[in-house]
Amino acid sequence: MSVHLAVGASGNMVGTLQVNGSDTAVTCTIAAGAPAGTSCSDTTHSAAVSLGQPIFLHVRCNTTTGFDVCPGSVWAYLASPN
Fold first, then answer.
1. Residue 4, CA distances (Å) to 29, 49, 65 in order
2. Residue 70 near residue 82 (C-beta atoms within 8 A)
3. What total of structural domains would you count in the chain?
4. Beta bridge partners of residue 23, listed in sequence order
5. Which domain holds residue 43?
């Protein structure tokens, strides 16, 4: 998983890959205030996806307070098959 983000000034942004509505171990974090275009990758973990299962990128901001809203943040997700 590779994610390219512009992060707001407060709170880290954490992306978690979800398969069929459940979080997987595939995550990446970008620190608050990181410059636009900063990217993160998780090349350690993997997740099994079967044909027809929906996949989502759950993005959380301000993880210390649990907000799911990411004001001023933009993200793009790139997945590549192995």
1. 11, 22, 23
2. no
3. 1
4. 18
5. 2-78
- Distance, in Å, from the CA atom of 74 to the CA atom of 81, rounded to the nearest integer, reads 24
- How many whole angstroms separate alpha carbon 16 and alpha carbon 9? 20
Residue with tokens 């979800």: 18
The C-alpha atoms of residue 14 and residue 77 are separated, in whole angstroms, by: 13
- Summarize pLDDT for 43-75 with one digit per residue, the tens: 899 999 888 888 888 877 765 555 565 655 555
Say how far apart CA 38 and CA 4 lie, in whole Å: 6
Residue % of the chain over a pLDDT of 90: 15
Quote the pLDDT of residue 22.
93
- φ/ψ of 59, rounded to 5, equals -105, 125
